[in-house]
Amino acid sequence: MNKFVVTPKEDKTVTMTIRIDRNLQDQYTKLAAQTNHSRNELIGMALQYAIDNMEIKEK
What we know:
Blueprint: H1 22-35, H2 39-52
């Protein structure tokens, strides 16, 4: 009989608190309902997109 092997889970997430405009929260709530993704997932995707596509201009 094969054993059921459980390995430690690698935790790659952290909890972070931010303040955003209520209107922005409402938009993410509506988008979450439309896409069947959580607000957290959508915000994470948006933050990753911003990092991947950011251009920093020097003074």
